[in-house]
Hints:
The complex is a heterotrimer of chains A (455), B (657) and C (338).
Chain A: E1 21-26, H1 30-39, E2 48-53, H2 61-69, E3 74-79, H3 90-107, E4 115-119, H4 125-142, H5 174-186, E5 192-198, E6 205-210, H6 236-239, E7 244-248, H7 250-261, E8 270-274, E9 281-282, E10 285-286, H8 288-291, E11 303-304, H9 318-328, H10 331-342, H11 350-354, H12 379-392, H13 402-406, H14 413-428
Parallel strand pairs in A: 1-2, 1-3, 3-4, 5-7, 7-8, 8-11
Antiparallel strand pairs in A: 5-6, 9-10
Helix pairs in contact in A: 1-4, 2-12, 3-14, 9-14
Chain B: E1 4-9, H1 21-28, E2 34-40, H2 46-59, E3 63-68, H3 71-84, E4 92-96, H4 98-102, H5 108-127, E5 135-137, E6 142-146, H6 150-161, E7 165-169, E8 184-185, E9 190-191, H7 192-205, E10 209-212, E11 215-223, E12 226-233, H8 248-252, E13 258-259, E14 268-269, E15 272-273, E16 285-286, H9 292-296, H10 301-305, E17 318-324, E18 326-329, E19 333-335, E20 350-352, H11 353-360, E21 381-388, H12 404-418, E22 423-428, H13 438-447, E23 452-455, E24 458-464, E25 467-474, E26 479-485, E27 487-492, E28 494-496, H14 500-506, E29 534-536, H15 546-564, E30 569-571, E31 576-578, H16 588-592, E32 598-604, E33 610-617, H17 627-631, E34 637-639, H18 644-652
Helix pairs in contact in B: 1-5, 2-3, 5-18, 6-7, 6-15, 11-12, 12-13
Chain C: E1 4-8, H1 11-20, E2 24-31, E3 34-40, E4 64-72, E5 77-80, E6 89-94, H2 96-110, H3 116-122, E7 125-130, E8 156-160, E9 165-169, H4 172-178, E10 186-187, H5 193-202, H6 212-218, H7 224-229, H8 237-241, E11 248-254, E12 258-265, H9 286-305, H10 315-319, H11 326-335
Parallel strand pairs in C: 2-6, 6-7, 7-8
Antiparallel strand pairs in C: 1-9, 1-10, 2-3, 4-5, 4-12, 8-9, 11-12
Amino acid sequence: MSTETLLTPSAPDTATWKPRLVAFVCNWCTYTGADLAGTSRTEYPANVRIVRLPCSGRIDPHFIIRAFEQGADGVLVSGCHPGDCHYTAGNYHARRKFMVLHALAEFLGIEPERLQFSWVSAAEGRKWADVVSDVVAGLLRVGPVQPTWGGAGELPVRSLSEPPRPVPEPLDVVGELRATAQRWLSDCRVDVFVGYGQGSLPGRLRPAFITSPDEVDQLVWNEHAVNNLATYLTRGLVKRHGRVGLLVKSCDARAVVGLLQERQIEREQVTLLGVPCIGVEVDGALAPKCHTCDSAWPALVDEVLSAEVPLTPVDGEGLAAEIAWVEKMSPAQRRAWWQAQFDRCLRCYACRAVCPLCYCSQCIADQSRPQWVSKSSDGRGNLAWNLVRAFHLAGRCVGCGECTRVCPSNIRLDLLNAKLAQVVRDEFGYVAGGDPDLPPPLTTYLLEDHEEFIR
Amino acid sequence: MARIGVFICHCGENIARNVDVDRVAEAAAQIPGVAHAESYRYMCSDPGQRKIREAIVAQGLTGIVVAACSPHMHENTFQNAVEGAGLNRYLCEMANLREHCSWVHSDREEATSKALELIAIMVEKVKRNQPLAPIRVPMTKRALVIGGGIAGIQAALDIANAGRDVVLVEREPSIGGHMAQLSETFPTLDCSQCIMTPRMVEVKNHPRIQLYTYAEVEAVDGYVGNFTVTIRRRARSVDESKCTGCGACTQRCPQKKIASEFDAGMGQRPAIFIPFAQAVPNLPVIDRTRCTMFLKGKCGLCAKACPAGCIDYEQTDTLVTEEVGAIVMATGFDVQPPTLYPEYGSDPDIINGLQFERLLSASGPTAGEPRRPSNGEVPRSVVFVACAGSRDPARGVPYCSSICCMYTAKHALLYKHKVHDGQAYVFYMDIRAAGKNYDAFVHRVIAEEGAQYLRGRVSRIYRDGDQLVVRGADTLSGTALTIRADLVVLATAVTPRPGSDALAQKLSVPYDAFGFASEAHPKLRPVETNTAGVFLAGTCQAPRDIPDTVAQAGGCAAKVLALFSADQLEREPVVSRVNEATCVACFDCERVCPFHAPEHRELRNRAGDLLRVVSHINEGVCAGCGLCVVTCRSHSIDLAGFSDEQTFAEIGALAPF
Amino acid sequence: MSPTTYLADSAQAVLTAILAAGQRVVAPVEQAGLLAFAHVEQAEQAQLIGQTRASAKELAFPRTQRLFGYRFGNPGVELLPGEEPPAPTVLFGVRPCDAAGLAILDGVFGAEPADAPYLARRARITVVGLSCDQPQAHCACTAVGLSPTATDGSDLLLTPLAEGVLVEVLTARGAALVDLLGEALRPGAADKAEVTARAEAAMAPRALPAGLADGLAAAFGEAAWADAAARCLGCGTCAFVCPTCHCFDVVDESNLRGGQRLRVWDACQFGLFTLHASGHNPRADQAARYRQRALHKFSYYPRAHGRPMCVGCGRCVNACPAGMDIFEVAATAAAGQG
């Protein structure tokens, strides 16, 4: 049930409609190049409105989202050619962010004509005029942005290429688990051991915090141990105990790598106990993330239960098949499919709360000056929130799938995150959760980074 | 409560022709927050600026939008005007109604409605501008000059003579650049070396100039007033402290037949060599790519010949760090080789202007006698081809190389002086002789010296026996010509030195498609670049002759001295700031900042206990790009002058109304 | 008015009749593997077995509601109206817990100063309740003084019998609806005690200790809250699925031209919920925030209004990402004071 808002423009009259193009440009190159187009009296369409920023590195993807929210039919982003940045490296960093945003927009069904990128130097007045003309021509082809942003029509029914898999019988490591936790607590190696205990509903487990060696019998292990316990490493109520012992599946351990990489925890404060997980159950079947688990331990795990049991990688298609299925849809169908999901978003932020890598004390969704993300739980605000969240996790999400498990509206957040993980892997050669000493992929760049999508 | 003043400039007809400025002023007055809106013919003029100042005082305006030309043109002008009325200069913004609107959109309706929106964007921005004060940082009052040609030499001397220290870095083993290779200079026919050498010696002896030759700038860190430059001093293989410049080593070297760079390939040099007789410093250098000792591990004759024991085969490159406050880029030019056009082929008797210069030069390989490279005989007929690669968008470079008409005339004159009965032909497209006394010089060459000027292009050159056949056109008489020549001199295109683009990148100086460094504004700021503290002198910026180069070098020196004239450097306060309450200390900002501005700051309570570490931006170093702002996941950093709130408001101003 | 009862063939038959009478109906439907309240046009679309993931409050207390709009002039501001409430709607298939939740919200929003936006919507809703004969593992309505066939908050209540359904008319609004349904309803009576007993027996035993409200108040300062709340991640799931949670935030969203003032759901579990403009946050950690929830439901509200604010739907326990169980926490905390 969405509200009609004043801020969302009503569907324009196609006879008189003129595309509105917002251009975010860097001051030193493209703005000056546009000046040169002016001094050379080169004519181009009047649909463009320039917002000047010091550097393409200053062009925040949130600005682009906001421009669409405020009624832009298209957004053009332009800066200095790589190598020529007035601040030396702004555009190299921006290029990676643009690549991710471009892929995300495409995945959500935003027509490529609506989000365009270019490098225009201070000497390229002619090019500026040509780029604007081209982009406006593209917008005339795709038409105005529809206010409700989805469309009518039959939504394709989701079908997996492989049927749901059964959950394998978990390994019995409970005795060893309790003994290890008891040893760590008695030896004062840790001050609190975080594992799984019985939940209050049948068949459920939940996080358990053991502070005394006498309490280790609360610890259990089975296929319902779904929570990613790494999220507790940044919580005050857990950190207050001191050093933390953490039970981790291999997916959880990758999140710990991310926290180390982003300097949110000290290595000495955490001791990791790896548990040989062969799959967890979500919605009655093997969790999608488990279909493609390589069962590999990051090097930083301190001890592993039943270490002598070899774990084999699972060979399934998992989310890659579903991503391919989404991408087979036309842009309009994709938009409608995602919009139907985002319409259900309650903005409960369970996805944010459960994610180990969402640790900011004040989330940008909570800020009001500026209000990055509309708080309204309708199509417009929810699209912005989910877009922003996916972008913030690009190159960081380890695919633990918790966000999707906890979403009370069953929104396929995992697909968004997995798609961007694919992009980061294919374009930047980086997979999250491996080596804590590697720089996060969006804080670095290569001179050879792809830019075919940039004019 | 915001009270914004909007001042719309007609700019004569420039804006008013395509934008209905009166209607815009009326509509602008309706924008929420606007307290005053008016239009005037020339806002940048004195009366225009007075209007702004008076309105600020009379109406208590809290922010100003001047809707006129590009801020790159007049932002400073209006910021000064606003400051004059007691309002902080950073509360003034410009909306670009000229370059971005009236000059590019001829539909009056569209241009007018766009103009109003451009004003609305800036009104929303300026409502959220904060008054800012310039940041003051200490400054190193020392200059770095990169390039030891006439441009770099002149700039270095001008700065040093004004009492400031200079570091001069030259890539070749000697300073002097191309001017040292010239025989005579036009139009005065001064002996180039004669006028140059005293300056070179002055540089060497100047107490305020630190000269590094056979050295290159490896890295540049920092920002205006506070650059840290790493210079690689390449190993000459000679101990400079002991060498007397006697030259015995160069005579003893068994490798004598290496093409000499100084002679542009027209002559030869040994593997250990002094580039030319007047070299400064007068020190030999071993070319390790050709020296037998380095290639095969045996020889050592130069070491044995040296009476002072200066040869040091073990010498390695050294890195030197210099702190400077300003940098002058004066890396000069090259001329293209004479092999651009397949129609001319490749022949020992087809040479370019610089090579002919060496043949004419008394210090050259032929002691000043023009001689044919093929057989050493004196050429009886010489064909000079101007524009051999310039003004040719299809095959060469599209621009004019500026100096070729004059030096071709000079070459024809000097040839005629040396070979009285020789015949000189000059194929030209136009004669560009705009400088002082230049035109008279060319006339003299045509009328008095007897060089034959033919207006047309050369279509083919090929060898026929002992001579070259040159086929061209004389468009003034409308005939095709065939000339048999002993020597052909091509005036090839002037290009920047190889590696100048890599250096420009290190200096954050933009360059065009040909590698020429870009000035800040082609008309009004020809020696400055967009990087504060980096200046351009000479042909690295564009082809030009010696008088213009020397003048420009002086201009650079003036800019550098102006920079150094203040006690402290005032920096633009467009810098980033961290909200320490929300910083999550991931330090991604530190990872990405090209200027290393983020630092670790410890937050402690009154008892001195460490609460946590957060990021802090050093405002003396921050260049204001805003990369950290976008990188910061928790959005704890913001950029003054281009803040998130401002940009959000600007975007919000664009919602259709 | 005296309660009247009818009999009908099935809940679905009643729904069919309501639709045939031209009423706008919102009922539970299947959506992405969950049940949610949505507009239905055919009776087959409704899914009348099971519990919706979110409660029924959304129709009366929407996630986002425009209070008013505004257009900036120069000078001055032009006010624009708030949302137009939806057309009169029959909210069909509301479980007794959810209906009781609406009754509690009516009390909260109806008390002075009355909340006009809520009441405008509420006045156009007719609640047709549907008793539970198959409770879920997390159901706990009996623990808070309700039952699977309770009538609180419903205008009509349908209770499945061995054959057919019992229709209880509980309010004038319910009676008005019955008048439109014609022969689908036949006057008649039945005893629902057996249905109630069977359903209650199928529920997992959950009871709250006596004197809970006072016991919790006394436990306010206990350090044990930190242990109890350690697992809580501070999201808003519990508040948003809860039939009685009603906290909201008021935000302005505007640009140069104007904007709107919106009411949006908020949750006391969010970290910044009680952040003051000064920067001080009186509930600065999750222990304080979770305590707030437990006490609001089981101490503050009962001491003011005589019954727990919780209706025992169990949604919070079922949906919580971290397995928090407010009944467990409350009972433990109060027992510590015993």
